[in-house]
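Researcher: Please translate sequence to structure tokens.
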Amino acid sequence: MRAYCFVCVCVLFASAAFATVSVSQPSNGMTVGSPVQFVATATASTCSKGVGSMGIYTAPYQLAYVVNGASLNTKLTLNPGTYNTVVEEWDNCGGATTTPVTITVTAGTGVWVTSPLNNSQVGSPVNFVATASSSTCSKGVGSMGIYTAPYQLAYVVNGSSMNTNLTLSPGTYNTVVEEWDNCGGAAVTPVTITVTGTGQTFSNLQSSVGWTGYGQLPPDYQDCSSCGSSVTWSSKQGVSSPSLSGKSMQFNIGGIEAYADVLWNNHLIGDFSSQGLPDTSHTLVPTIHNYTYDAYFYGTNLQTAQALEFDVNQFFNNLGYTWGHECRTGGGNEWDVWDNVNAKWVPTGIACYPLNNYWNHLVIQVQRTSDNQLLYQSITLNGVKNTLNWYYPPFSEPGWYGITVNFQLDGNSKQQAYTTYLDNFNFTYY
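Model: Translation complete:
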């Protein structure tokens, strides 16, 4: 059975030439409340001994926080004002690299919503990302919630931050994000959005049947079910730790041939459907246009991967569509997307620095347009959304009907073995 990957022809061999510090929270220029959450990771490609520690300067010569290792995730209490903060890494060879992040900390109690934007048009499910603070309550923020209409509380989470997806029908919503402190107080921020579409969702696909793995060897990267020692792989479902749901899926790659890859795919709709939707009359697949690939992934040494791939595929009426997304974790820390017709990866200019020892949340939105073009809409990693709106034509693929999803591990120049996990993998279509 052919896996329909089509996204592994070009592997980028470049590695980062210098040490890097990637700050995923807060964003540069962002307005936030206090305490401020800092999330960052670092690499030291010029030092074989790696990163020794990381720190945060809130002003020149004011080192406010230090942690051992190549990642940090902490909250700092800051007074209202504008801060030219600097996140720095120190490697074990005596070198250092910095990334400046300018933020404005506001006074008082408040709710700051970074996604969705007020008065924006969004697809469903809608990604809500927000933080809150309470200067009037010494006990801090207790919980946060989202109202999709008056008196309709759609979501609640404990703590002073949220990152969740809500499935909403098409229409305009006067949503409200609210925080409740531990002293009986509250604060709200209204966010008006127009939802342009909704759909059906396959939930927790990491626990679903139907996953099949294939090796892929350079230079042509054709699928092989048994590749000898060149590339080896295995997977395991129902993993309790690390896990968010209690049932994550583990993926392993190894072998001896440089730049060998492993593809796992699952046939959801149409031929070989694992979800009970074979569409034998070919009346469902051609009607579907919009897809959201929403998953959490985890690894302890993600930089060992040449790249991680997350793909959506659709085939009907002798046409093929592969929305390929590649996070080059070991090959330049950038997102690439797949050009179907020319069979090549195209750099997007969007940085990709997933965090080690951390559940990274990825949301990919794509569309098959009314005139049958592939549309790459957006990539959201750990709450940071980047909009592409790039169009590509489909390719010729005779005689096959179906919709599939892929997850792929790409090997590096030494084909170092590594392990990743997927959890809370939801796939929405309409």
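Researcher: Any highlights?
Model: Confidence is low (pLDDT under 50) at residues 1-18.
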